[in-house]
């Protein structure tokens, strides 16, 4: 696939590039500050587009002019609470969703998209509730989820990557990716945390909170493995089992 990657200069995006290349994708990078990209990285790109990730017109032009089949949005950082500066995370998400939906409608074929999201929008221990309904952190993820659910699947084939913590194994991106970080070492599940234990759920009044608080910090997934997971999934195209789903992950070594 030809993939438009937003957020190349960030912690997540910089690890996605080597994984995308290793899975034989062609990468068009969309960045605000090209001066941050070393020349040896630029040489690995199919194209480099300069613009703001909140500019839907610029993103649309990049998708159509470079004939991108997929988009991976790793741009922006979500604020932990609603009481601090929110930055551009939600605006970027909205711009990418809008333009990808429009491009898919124009082409008559949905754009395959991966968005970095949050653990809190996975299903919680109580039916009809999300984890963030109990632990209301990173509220922008919940708003973003509500937005993307409203988009017709005929125009946008989306997936939300919902990791709790993604520590990098290596201090800098590895080209090619290190063989010690394959996605095979992850357990993934659609819409809810994989291998979730309901041990404390029946405790009166506080059971659901205990259930979440005693487990959520254990949901660690190495950043390079997560990048490999996304890049590998894009090889499946529209046949991916993760289209239209929130994807929870955890390292196999963390499963008891």
UniProtKB/TrEMBL annotation:
InterPro entries (UniProt xref): NAD(P)-bd_dom, NAD(P)-bd_dom_sf, Polyketide_Oxido-like
Residues in coiled coil: none
Residue ranges of domain NAD(P)-binding in the record: 9-123
GO molecular function, one term: oxidoreductase activity, acting on the CH-NH group of donors, NAD or NADP as acceptor
Region (Disordered): 169-193
Bias-annotated ranges (Pro residues): 169-180
Pfam families on file: NAD_binding_10
Protein name: NAD(P)-binding Rossmann-fold containing protein
């Amino acid at each position: 696939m030809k993939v438009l990657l937003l957020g190349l200069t960030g912690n997540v995006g910089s690890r996605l590039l080597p994984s995308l290349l290793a899975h034989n994708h062609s990468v068009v990078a969309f960045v605000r500050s090209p001066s941050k990209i070393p020349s040896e990285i630029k040489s690995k790109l199919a194209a480099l587009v300069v613009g703001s990730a909140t500019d839907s017109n610029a993103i649309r032009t990049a998708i159509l002019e470079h004939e991108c089949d997929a988009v991976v949005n790793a741009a922006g950082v979500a604020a932990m609470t609603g009481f601090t500066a929110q930055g551009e995370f939600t605006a970027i998400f909205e711009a990418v969703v809008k333009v990808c939906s429009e491009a898919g409608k124009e082409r008559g074929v949905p754009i395959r998209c991966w968005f970095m999201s949050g653990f809190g929008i996975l299903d919680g221990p109580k039916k009809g509730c999300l984890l963030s309904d109990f632990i209301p952190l990173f509220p922008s993820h919940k708003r973003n989820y509500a937005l993307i659910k409203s988009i017709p699947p005929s125009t946008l084939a989306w997936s939300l990557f919902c990791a709790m913590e993604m520590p990098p194994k290596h201090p800098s991106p590895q080209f090619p990716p290190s063989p010690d970080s394959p996605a095979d070492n992850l357990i993934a599940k659609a819409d809810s945390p994989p291998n979730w234990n309901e041990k404390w759920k029946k405790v009166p009044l506080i059971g659901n909170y205990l259930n979440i608080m005693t487990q959520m910090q254990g949901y660690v997934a190495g950043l390079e493995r997560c990048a490999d997971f996304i890049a590998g999934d894009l090889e499946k195209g529209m046949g991916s089992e993760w289209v239209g789903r929130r994807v929870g992950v955890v390292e196999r070594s963390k499963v008891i």
